[in-house]
Amino acid sequence: MAPEHASSTATAEPEFWQSVDQWMDTPQFREMVQNEFPEDAAEWVDPVSRRQFLTLMGASVALAGAVGCNPSFKPASQRKVVPYVVQPDQITPGVPLFFSTAMPQANGVGLGLIVKSVEGRPIKCEGNPNHPSSEGAIDLSALAAPLSFYDPDRSQACRMGETATTADKAIAAFKEILTRQAEKPLADRGEGVRLLTEPTTSPTIFRLMDDFLKRFPAAKWIQYEPIGNSNSRKGLFAAFGKNVTPIYDFSEANVVLSLDADFLSGPGSVRYAKDFGARRRISTIDATEELEEKHAKDNPDDKTHFHPKWEAIIAEATSGMNRLYVVEGALTSTGAVADHRLPLKPSQIESFARALAVELKITGVTAGTLPAEVLAWIAPLAADLLAQSGHCAVIAGEHQSPAVHILTAAINLKIKAGHAPVKYIPPLDGVTGDAADDFKKLVAEMNAGKVHTLLMSGVNPVYDAPADLEFAKALDAVKAKKAGGVFHHGLYLDESAVPYATWHINAAHFLEAWGDVRGHDGTASLQQPLIAPLYKGKSLLEILATAIEFPISEAMALVKDTWEKAFAEKKIGETKVDGVPLTFAKYWEKSLRDGVLIESKADFPKLKSAELGEVKLDKLAAPGFTQAAIDKLEIQFRPDPVLFDGKFANNGWLQELPKPVTNLTWDNAAMVSPRTADELKFTQNFAWTGGERGSTETDIAELTVGGRKLKVAVHVQPGMADNVVVLHLGLGRERAGKVGDKRGFDSYKLRATDGLWNAPVTEMRRTGERYTLAVAGAHAAMESRRPVRHASVEQYANDEDFAQIPPTSAAEFEEIRMLTPGTIENFQLNGLKHPYAHDHGDHGGGEHDHKGHDARLKKLSLYLVNPITVNGEEATKSYRRWGMTIDLGSCTGCGACTLACVAENNIPVVGKDQVMRGRAMHWIRIDRYFSIPGHATMSDELGAAKIGPEKRKEKIKESSAIRTHFQPVPCQQCEKAPCEVVCPVGATVHGADGLNDMVYNRCVGTRYCSNNCPYKVRRFNFLQYTDYDTGSLKLLNNPEVTVRTRGVMEKCTYCVQRIRNAEIEVEREWKNRSGPLLDDAGKPKLDKAGNEMRKPTEDKFGRPKILDGDIVTACQQACPSQCITFGDLNDDASEVIKAKAEPHNYGLLAELNTMPRTSYLAAIRNPNKNMPQGA
Amino acid sequence: MATVTEPATRGHIPNEIFPPHPEGLLGGNHDTVTLGDKIADVVIGGSTPKAWWMWFLFGFMLLQGLVVGLAYLFYMGTGVWGINQPVAWGLAIVNFVWWIGIGHAGTLISAILLLMHQKWRTSINRFAEAMTLFAVSCAGIFPLVHMGRPWLGYWLFPFPNNMAVWPQPRSPLMWDAFAVSTYLTVSLVFWYVGLIPDLAILRDTAKHKLQRMAYGMLALGWRGSAYHWRRYEKLYLLLAGLGTPLVFSVHTIVSFDFAVAIVPLWHATIFPPFFVAGAIFSGFAMVVWLAVPLRHYYGMKDFITDKHMELCAKVMIATGLLVSFGYFCELWMGWYSHSLYEWETTYQRIWEGPYWWSYWCLITTNTIIPQLLWIKRVRTNELLLFLVAGSVHIGMWFERYVIIITLSRDHTPGAWGRYAPTEWDYAIMVGSVGLFITLFCLFIKFLPMISITEMREFLPFKQGGRDGHAVMENAK
Hints:
Chain A has about 1200 residues and is of the alpha/beta class. Chain A contains 35 helices and 43 strands.
């Protein structure tokens, strides 16, 4: 046997018994391995078969055992291995392993992930708590990555023209071109050779590129991103005279102004949403405790019981809330959660920024013209920004002209945002010029015949380059040169590969390749593969290293080498970890395990004001910087909020996810405001099949922008600015794959270099054709039912019970609250003491005890939680009671919860047709409502009873008054579940811990439960939705969750598999797991005797306790704004019981006596009283 | 003791003119022999009317819709229908309740009217019972096939099994399984027991050996002895007693499918009486629909007289008004409850929702049009009565449609949706009509559509009968 701890450094010596063939490196052995099933040799070119998978699986499992004791090392090789016959240690079949890695996203910025691997197959991505860009949460594209990884449509072989070939040959061809170049004089070397890659922040790629460009100085490397950040780069370069990237710290921002920036959704938003959301959640419980502590401190002699006044409590609780102003043309997630939102034509936002700058007395800026109602915003907004100077941020969207970015920089400097919330750092991607311009130049060179060899990696310019550049023609020009060729390296045989590529090299997915990538603040992460490449794909690293004959060609070794050098350069070895100096081996191991590289952030320091200097405003009116106001109809292109630029178009999870705000699936559409739709005579109505739940019939318009025409479906979107058409990019793909082909409309066809984001619309007219959009959940109004309860801070201060008033039987709201599990009243009703109950039995809502309610009304339900006696103390009958709260105040409707649930629970994709029939399977539905709240009252002019369709049609045109609400609705886990009583076969039953369990095996499919569910959260497999046929997709399933068949009902289970796992764990380990109890500062708490307090691991009856955080549901884990809290209602220390005690906690439809375990925290907004438009 | 089955010569013509029936329940000039001949000839002699072939082939053709529809359904799953979230029940349940309702009149006529000494039941009870059986059979298809996994339908019944699982007794669907199957069983037994003496007559008068053997076997050795009659009549009375509560229980329990749920406008105590009245309403409408062609094509006007038709019409107007009262109660409770959900849903149902038209279809066909029955000319005009009965069929169908479609807009506005049936919904619905027509045609062809023995008993004393049903009249 090999030694117990084989060296894992990048040497050629055999490693561990992983490489059995290396170890027993004999020709016979190789023969045996390779020819065992010679008749199946063909399978290797087919989609992954079961047998092939077993081999691959064996490979990565064996790797796991191979590299030693550290779990982080397990997937760390791609060398050929054979399936194991003896179970390696660390692998227990059925017990998943978690590995950290990172996903390169928009602009090459990485998101740190923890990937769950089951028997060697990666099945789910979760956020890495150590990574500054994710902090444990995650965004949509990362959640959907495993499906893309197993996508059967991925390119599975290299091709030369039409014929299959190997990667070696393709790389050799590239290498040969370079070899020929090497014969030229140094200055000409690389002439005609261009590398066109997606933006990257990978230090290892930079190393290789540096080497390449040094040796081939005439070659060029262009980083191309269709949704790039060149506007802000250009603007900020003009402002500061150097390349900078702004990053934001929302934990420091009291006031935020967004100028068309959708910073709460899309790639790179996770950390922002998290910090932002943290300051939208309020806790009156914490506030009360603080006030009480303060009182006790100030009045040490006061022995009477002090209970602060409600006014003081609410003032304390909301003092930390931030305030968001949004000025935008479209209606985005960010706009939806704003305290003040101004719909404004995107081309006017520059004038807005100018007006604001003038108001802030920034010299050198001239104000543009703006309508009076917009001007009314400027003064109070400026006053608010100045008042919070040093704690506010102005953020400009990438869709805005460079001038807006210059102005934003100036404003930020003026309001001292640079102190804390806005930080400027050097750009992570190393691009020094204007990337968009570089790309334009490349196309010009290509057309001029100056390029003979083009390597495209991870890009698809034929599809997404500006239409006027006609990239396909340019590619033909390159091909016509015949001196080199077009090399295409990508995951798919996409639009740019066929028929343009001379060579196509299938890429390795980030889950199967080594690499490194930087997060938004510069922190670097290692990207470690979870499995050997399914289709022998190559990463850019490997191709480059081989082609340029870099001394190291193996990807892992390369990455390791990069960081070994960095380790030496930065003297990281001097840092001590646990008192021991760090060795590189340790450093590497720790970095792999943690997912972040220590000290790597230091390369991208925050630039100090002195370094930045004054903002130069000279370019403000320069051509190419400013955006001319567009009088009439204008179009704005935006990346699709789910599919981004179109890269993920073949991902069914993403295609089917209702887009935030619009709830559109499987399509994009030209979005216009109701008034504009009216003027242009577009109509939209619900189809009979599915209706509001899926089918919206609409007009097809012919849209002409700068001479280019596109026929596109129209979607009427309330809340948008009038005379604006918003068109999402990323759909209408021609060669995306089976899922993504011909979905939606290719808006890139309208996008030109002179109007990358905004352009005047020449004409938009009805064609007379109709189109059916799959809009899931299109009903707009709350119909006076108040499913989403919301108030301003002031309204909350005036009426602490505002969230309690149900739409019906309003007089009984206290009794209804008693039937909401986890509330103080609910505990009292059952004769139990709530951990947050005040001594005289009230908290928040406490004064009601003195209001003289009719006691006869108290028993609304015959069913009470019968207290039982355990060890002489009263306890609820159930031992653990799971409960959840969802904070509507911080929900941005992004859909991450829905998608995380899909990935965790094997929820099938049903396709557009089924969505249109109202059969989407998502267990969490995000209801989106619009309302027009009154200024002072809680009225909703849109949802008031009997407003009538005609009047509502008029009302909804008031774009600036429209308020958007999101409400994620999973199963409410009713204690008295209406679904349970009606099931004839007992397929849905109540568990001992109060979960409403679904027994798939027992379900016969009467669907009665669904009818009787007032929340309509049950989902039925009307057809065989789960794909049982595609081999590779089977590998994606989570083995802990039953894969449902046709005819079976399903629904949210609170991730019961995670609950059961935690229970097993706690039963086994609870005696040993008592860690120190930490205070808020992270220091161990001490008891009165000065001893360290330990975490309680058993409840007062001596039963093992599951602590907060032991179970995290998939949705809770994913939620970027962290609005989901889950835990045990019987645990006094749980976060959830605290949240349930809040006065703004309410049960949805609790008046039906369903006693929902999931409850909502009403949305509290923080409007500025001086603003013209109220909350 | 009845002695009416004495052998008589076929083709015998009564040699005296009998006075017209005092209640108008009998026409022509019949004694026991001519009466028996007239009814039995349809089965064992005479020619089959062309109309029978027409109807049979028509029904058989429609039946193929069921065959194809079910085959496709079983192959693909319930997704071939238009059901979705939130409307998880669709036409299948509409049709189920509709058919069950139609299946009501038969047992009501046979059992309840018998116990209530209504002589006019005798002419129509046999085919009404057949109607019941076939309607319940049609109805029974739907709850089974609407399941997501119909092959597990037997799980709704308690049976010892190694999975140690039993039905969930709080669910109305389980009660349904019991109620409908009990109803079907009792109706079948009742019908068959009533048929036995007639089968014996057919056996005795049959022309072909095959007929003799078939009817002989079915007659279970009936010889018409006094013992046989005594036991027969006791059993018949007992079954009538047993059938009576079932008439009320079946539709009451079917209504619980809705009333037990918390869906607004489903959750209503009015449902059981309202549903039973509706069932009788539609059942009698169907009796009218069946009686008209029988009178027309088989010349049964002597036995199913205008008086019978008028009486059916009167039952219809009575039950129709009860049903309309039910509609009023729903509106009233929606308003009076002061519950937002109840009233808004009512408002959606009648005016603002996308399905307002179906409510007004229902009111027009089920409340307004049947008021024509107050006019005697309408009650006695076969064509007009037929049309009104047709309106009731449509109305009762829409009633269930309106109830089901309430699901499209219930508590949570964010979950609101719509429902439209697909061609496969319609295929199965039309196919069930085909099944009914086919079965009924076969029944007419092979079994006496009117009970010979009971009609003989019903004949006035002078005409050789006992002026009523022996079971009841003897008891007097």
